[in-house]
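Good morning,

Both structures are done.
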Amino acid sequence: MSAALRRVFPYAFWLCVLILAVLSWLPGEDLPRTGLAGRLEHFIAYAGTSLMGGLAWPTRHHALLLIGGLAAFAAVMELGQIIVPGRHPSVWDCLASSAGALTAVVVVRLLARNRSA
């Protein structure tokens, strides 16, 4: 992977985090839908964010921080929905988001391990 491309991933990660925050706290009537199941949307959104983070910071230490950080972020975003019209927090949505973050980090780590072997 080129050095120029590698420099893009941290920015892409933080942009994804910002987009997650905005989407998490949009009122229910303004929330764009993909047509997929809501929990699948959560899984994909957090997997994509985690993928950008995993590519930006590919060490094991950073992988653990990404998983924990995105899981905590998902919990905060869900709790914040208490005050958002037309939204409500869901433990299941938080778990779907966390599973997406975990899955992407595991995939990045496995691919990195296979490339170095």
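Second structure follows.
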Amino acid sequence: MEDRANKFLADCPRTILYSSEEFKDIGFIIRSAIDTELQFRDVLCNVDGRDYIYENDTCSDDCFGYKQMVWAKSTEVGCAKQKCPLSDGSKAYLSLLMCFYTPGDVHQAGRPYEQGSSCSKCSQGSGCMQNQCNAKISSRS
């Protein structure tokens, strides 16, 4: 996913990929800033769910990024960032940071997870790490 995010940002895109067949099963978060280099920790650690209301699956404000980050069915994530020149010829730049998630749903229909105890619905043979299901990796000696 990181390679796909890097590839997408490499040409400093000015449009978002909602209608692209190549990205139909990929969810994403994108942030931008002018003359400020975005840092992964600043963007991803500041996505919060205070505006998301689980009971009726609504948002009191923008919670697109939150829903995508906690989307339970996503199994892969990859992020990239890019500095892009502005088209006005100035020295200013546009900083882009994007994360791809798969499987993803840009429409985010339905709740992003089922309520309950962490890891209570992990599949047989998987483990629980930091309150998330994970594949158990067998060690070889």
